[in-house]
Known about the structure:
Chain A has 85 residues and is mainly α. Chain A contains four helices and no strands.
Amino acid sequence: MSTTTDVNETKGRILRLLGEIAPEAEVTTLRPDVSFRDQFDLDSMDFLNFVVALHTEFHVEIPEADYPKYMTLNGCLAQLSAPRS
Amino acid sequence: MADFVMPTLGADMTEGTLVQWKKREGDHVSKGEIIAEVDTEKAAIDVECHATGVIERLITRPGDKVPVGTIMAVIRENGQTTTGQTGPQAVAPQATVPAPAPRVDRVPGSAPQPGRLRISPAARKLAAERGIDPKGLQGTGPEGAITLEDIEGAASVAPELPRPAVGADRQARMRQTIATAMARSKREIPHYYLSTTIDMGPAIAWLSEANQRRPVTERLLYGVLLIKAVALALRQVPELNALWKEGQAIRSERIHIGTAISLRQGGLVAPALHDADRLSLSDLMKNFQDLVKRARAGSLRSSEMSDPTMTVTSLGEQGVETVFGVIYPPQVALVGFGKIVERPWVTHGQVLPRPVIMASLSADHRVTDGHRGGLFLSEIDRLLQKPQSL
Amino acid sequence: MTKITYREAVRIGLREALQRNPRVFLMGEDVGKYGGTYACSKGLLDEFGPERIRDTPLSESTFVGAGIGAALGGMRPIVEVMTVNFSLLALDQILNNAATLRHMSGGQFSVPLVVRMATGAGRQVAAQHSHSLEGWYAHIPGITVLTPATVTDARGMLLTALHEPDPVFIFEHAYLYSIEGELEEGPPAVDISRAAVRRTGKDVSLMTFGGSVWKALAAATQLAQEGIEAEVVDLRVLRPLDIGTILASVQKTHRAVVIDEAWRTGSFAAEIAAQIMEEAFYDLDAPVARVCSEEVPIPYPKHLEDAALPQPEKIVRAVHRLLGRG
């Protein structure tokens, strides 16, 4: 079970990684259900860097087929807060 | 003795500002090592040294704007002895014959001694108080010293920026540079345009299969396949891999693909991926990632800015299906890729949905004709059908 | 108010001093019958008589020594040494006696002596008669060194000096004697502890004294036409130096040119520059510049003498260099 604190902490880490890739991104007004690419003008290179950053930060394997699941903040939270198998 | 001169870091660069030296007098430098940071209209560029040896003299001072070709430093190449009176052997004769010390009538504005920043004590203090880095400021005081007024001027331009004079209006200047280069291109280069649609099915299938086996840190983007295919195709049609100089096209032995990278704050740079035809896809990907990162951080190297032999632009990310680009002079060709879209595709008498991409060629008609250009696009298509051999 | 010459101002000061205090007397070569080499004491012999206006033999050591003795004995002598050039003959009396007796006597003896002398070049009197050695005298602790540049100071400094318990040396630039000016309002005796700002400005400070004050003012006028506002600081007192006024000016303008008619090496200008750098280094926006005489015996021909001395044009050029316009 993940608590609210856990979710907030995970969210903070995700936004920090995002900020490193798109420094000008206004993460405070980020809409959690809209894709990062649409909100922040990320290109495929940026997105790949983001996935790599998630991998390094959260120690998760993200196969290419799963990329779409990480396109939004809510998507990321769902993936990263899920119990590890 | 080798001269280190202000390099051309782009077709329309006429002068550059030395931001800082990365080496000191007496330091050893190797060919390809970063020796200086130079600011152009487009970006701050790390400039590589083209000789190996010891830096005998740094002539240009940080903050000085000098024309392209100006000797900025003198490098004593390996095996040479010193020419100046800087070595220890110069001490003995000086001791026995005390040279008369003529009163040097210092001419303000003449080339001052390199080394420590020339700044007045009051200006240095004010700069510290205001958090301004005086390096890179153009001094207006005696012998080009940075004065209170210069610091105040810099402070009023951009109170918080670490490098005010350098970074302040870069965006406007970049726009101006792009304007100049593109206007020159359209004025001087008789462009012709070709395009073809390429089936990306095999390439994408191969790529996702390859990426499945690769850890996330080593995965490839399809853009790298495109760059590699273009680079290999240039081997077959080498006249497109050339620079137009003084009325004729000079073919380049090596293939350095300029990759158009849009910057977040606006504007565009197209630095080179060196020897793109010879690198493995993995290495090309690594270099590409590194290049994008540094382009956006503003730390490109001089050679990357100055020596692309042909440019690839891809607007597919923005959802555009076709792009006919403007050649970046003095190059003679540019390849554009649009977005990968799924389209009905007839193959072996069957209509199938296939991911396809529109590839275009903009080429200089002074150098090549449509026939060769067509062969070139066909070659790219052919290579992309066999991605495993890229 | 009518204009008077510097020479007249000196004479007025002498007369006032002689009138105020019966213990004051004037002594020197040709001060009596001849009326003074520069005519400063003209008419005073008739007015005050030979007891108080005393002609001396051509022996500087003797009559400066006699002045010291008179001062020790309770008189208030004004000794006129014709020019600084001849004062070297009296240097032993000045340095070893006048300047040290208070110290050597453990404070028991005072030497309230005033010595006046002409100084400086610019009148085509050649190398032996054109020295500017007031900077040398300013090196000596125990004495006061004054350089009046205006008619008000030429008259009033003498009066204040006569109230000093220790020796005071007044250097009158020979070039100034015929210059005219208006006496300022106020009591005749003037302060002899402070420098004076003769012209205010914000861009550069011209630090100078004596005859060069007028050259600095001329340069400032020229600079003003280009929009450069130069401040002219008249040091007035070389010892003890009013460093506060100097620093205040530098802290305002951030640039200083020191003008001194002495030779550059070891000049008083060097002392000023050093003190500015010691006390106001972080206020400086340019190196302190000096305009001094060329390091040659002062030439006789006019064009060469002019070329050897500080001139307004040289000051202007120095300012241009400091402003990066040179």
